[in-house]
Amino acid sequence: MIQLRDVTKIYRTQTVETRALSHVNLDIEQSDFIAITGPSGCGKSTLLNVVGMIDSPTSGEYTFLGDHVGRLSERELASMRNRHIGFIFQGFNLVEDLTVFENVELPLRYLGMPRGRRRFRVREVLEAVDLVSREMHKPAHLSGGQQQRVAVARAVVGDPALIVADEPTGNLDSKNGEEIMSLLEALHSAGTTVLMVTHSAAHASRARKVYAMTDGEFAPASGSVLRNIQVSRRS
Ligand code: ADP
């Protein structure tokens, strides 16, 4: 589904050059659930931003569902993102002026879905995250856990092939973090591909594969897959 080949990302300011990603190779299969761990500053968010087409690599090849991402125009990139990728961030990133319903509806507006179908689909995903009763609330009137469930609903409402989650439980207590992990697991079980960054070893262990990053690279060759549940279950 996704291939990164020899992807390097360098941030340049007038005085400093930071190599955030260094010759990264990554294959993500359809319906995979991958967790990425590593110390702060090692390039995890940069990797998610590249995979999520929010940022572009300095060099290397990125292929998403057979398309060479580097050859797409801004407009085509935006369209790919809207159709195929749902984002969940540590800080929820909801639109404060919009209600829960309107926040979740937003991606469907961008997709041009007619109003009646939008209403039906938004209700459906709000039910899945148990927030129908809050649909007219503004984000500020919800707890952190509830806000992140709205963010999950917004990420999945367009039925994307890939969910990109950057420390989705980082701002939550353990109970609310668990709810988000359960939602991600349910999505994965339903066939959605999930790519998640986390600092929590316990949450990383819920993924099918765990990759460790240091200094813009995956940990050395043999150890790049720290854990692969499918393999270990078979053995
Ligand atoms: P992580 O998510 O693992 O904490 P990041 O991907 O955010 O790491 O950052 C990797 C490196 O790139 C860090 O050294 C960071 O300071 C640098 N970096 C990230 N974004 C930018 C940017 N927009 N401009 C300059 N440097 C950046």
Describe the structure.
The chain is α/β, with parallel strands linked by helices. Helices cover 35% and strands 27% of the residues. It is built from 8 helices and 11 strands. It has helices at residues 44-51, 74-84, 100-110, 115-128, 144-156, 174-189, 201-204, 229-234, and strands at 2-12, 17-28, 33-37, 59-64, 67-68, 85-89, 162-166, 193-197, 209-214, 217-218, 225-228. Strands 3, 6, 7, 8, 9, 10 and 11 form a 7-stranded mixed beta sheet that branches. The chain has a 4-stranded antiparallel beta sheet with strand order 2-1-4-5, with helices on one face. β7, α6 and β8 form a beta-alpha-beta unit. α3 packs parallel to α5 (144-156) and α4 packs across α5. It is globular, with a radius of gyration of 18 Å. Residues 229-235 have low confidence and may be disordered. The structure holds adenosine-5'-diphosphate (ADP). Adenosine-5'-diphosphate (ADP) is lined by residues 11, 18, 20, 38, 40-46.
